[in-house]
Design goal:
Distance between the termini: 45 Å
Strand order of the largest sheet: 3-2-1-4-5-9-14
Number of helices: 13
Number of domains: 1
Shape: globular
CATH class: Alpha Beta
Largest sheet: 7 strands, parallel
Radius of gyration: 20 Å
Helix content: 25-40%
CATH architecture: 3-Layer(aba) Sandwich
Amino acid sequence: MRSARRPGSPSRRASTPETVLITGGAGFIGSHLADALLARGQRVRALDSLIPQVHGGAARPAYLSDEVELVTGDVRDADALRGALDGVDAVVHLAARVGVGQSMYEMAEYTSVNSLGTAALLEALAERPVRKLVVASSMSIYGEGLYTDSEGHEVEPPERTREQLAARDWDYVGFEPMPTPERKRPGLSSIYALTKYDQERACLVAGSAYGIPTVALRLFNTYGPRQALSNPYTGVLAIFASCLLNDRPPRIFEDGLQRRDFVSVHDVARAFALALDEDGADGLAVNIGSGRSVTVRDLATQLGAVVGRELEPKITGESRVGDIRHCFADVGLAQETLGYTPEVELADGMSALAAWLEGQTADDRVDDATEELTRRGLAR
């Protein structure tokens, strides 16, 4: 049940500095959240397995603050969890394998890390409850976003068929995409989406059972500095940046007119901090996005202009199993329950990303990833 308290009333966070455990805390979002928590005087511990696909070597990332206590370990490891949770007041659960396409052929790995890893964390928390648990969910659980028909009625369209995609019948004729609210039913079109929904629901169910106030944040397409540029299954802006850094045009599936919601990692980190402080969203799953949409084609063009490499995107006309057409966030519930309002405009966020990209290098593995999907019949 939602608390009656609203943002602006006194926080439940203790007046003395807390220790917050961030699983997956050495990664992109986790490191930014760590910075935000440290800046307000909290102690931060990160549990991270430092997988090579994300981190390259196994060394501590240079961008991770020296003030973060890094515990190198797997969230599925009971001993590692027990040590990481010692003395912790709150937990932010970010640890997960990320990538729609890869999840469709590494099904056991994604299910093990995301679903089993979350279950292991929850078993540990059942033995040692904390003040608050916040879990990173994903917009991928929606599948297609919400639409309206010609009479203004809401429509939840079915997943596009292979036959439609083969015919390049990309859009839902007669329907108009609209901001997607949390009331839309899940449309789980990939193993990744399935495991993220599993993480979300498991945390909310166990949190209720064990009296741990829990919030699930459904993150839309998060971008910003520190993304893993050499990971071909990371966020699309990082993938486009990897291409541009190698003087190659961004590769875009379908016709490039699919619409997405891109939210700055700084807004996302602030949302997690709010969820730790406020109790208005306890027991709920809440969208965290920018509340605006942009086509993937326009995004690629804008990024090229910002980084000074204006290469015309390559529109492939190809499609991938599990891809959706349009989905962007209705952030009204986050505003109501957490006091969250997105602050970073896309142009400003991309400028910050471009500044970070100067001097960065990236192994462009996009073609390898696409070839793997094609070989398995998951892209055509």
